[in-house]
Predict the structure.
Amino acid sequence: MHKRHLLISFLLISMVAVLIPKPAAAIPAATFVLGAMIGDSLSEVLQVRLTTVTEGFKNAPLFGGRLGWSIFPFAVEGSLLYSPSAIDSTGGDSFSASIMYAEVEAQLLILPGPVSPFLGGGIGLHSIKLQVGTTPRETVIGYVFGGGLKATFGTLGLRVDIKDHITPLEITELDPNFIEALGAAVSHNLHNIEFSGGVTIKF
């Protein structure tokens, strides 16, 4: 009888061990991004020369890539995005102004499963190049906040993102050539909004 109880106990423990889910492994994935950037209006804080007022960054396409790892309910990813935008002004004296974002973001996955909304925030380098005069460029530490929806179909997936890329423009820390070209009047946090979609490939 004692041996029988030991055998039953061993079988029960074995069954429980089999049923306990194994720790999930982090899943790497690469995403190819294509979307649009809604440029921030700067008319209240910036001036371009003495006779024209800056309207702000033009709406422009946005493209790049993301590489990330996820294990529910967390994810982390790095992004490299580029937008060939422009600075628009009321006087019609516009010029190109490309923007590049190199960011690292932590995300919270809201739901498990193949379709999951997410929220995230991160930090990175924001580089703005003005195609005017000496083509000054400024690279500052910026931030990103937003969310989206990820859908997975085997090794492939789709996602949509809505994010706010926040670029602090501190007058005292900017290159004088950059300030002169942009006509910056006061320090300002530049908000460029990303609307994008992407195709994801899991490794």
About this structure: The domain at 26-202 is CATH 2.40.160.20 (Porin). Residues 1-9, 15-23, 43-54 have pLDDT under 50 and may be disordered. DSSP finds two helices and ten strands in the chain. The radius of gyration is 24 Å.
